[in-house]
């Protein structure tokens, strides 16, 4: 099992950060990592996500939403072919702070392939950091425009 975890502090209310996070159809406007997304943040729903990591070709998958607790927690699982080959449990955890939102972005990889991939999953952290910074920029910009 491999875990990639990142965090960013966002100077915007948790409700606004959540709205930006789950407006999947708008990802194309701001998200350099998940460049295309569609679907609804509701347990049991399937999303359509296209990732583009630096130096790699785009990859599309259809994860299943497991948790969608507005303003707090979004979790989905994506799989390659069948369970146990390459599974990714993706999580976003939002925590209200005195100055805005603490945003945790995490993925737990399990299965046969992640164990064999070694450092190839390390670039995922860079993608998460790019996602986090873009989310921060988007949310803070929207917050400034409405304040």
UniProtKB/TrEMBL annotation:
This is SRPBCC domain-containing protein. SUPFAM superfamilies: Bet v1-like. PANTHER family: CHROMOSOME 9, WHOLE GENOME SHOTGUN SEQUENCE, SRPBCC DOMAIN-CONTAINING PROTEIN.
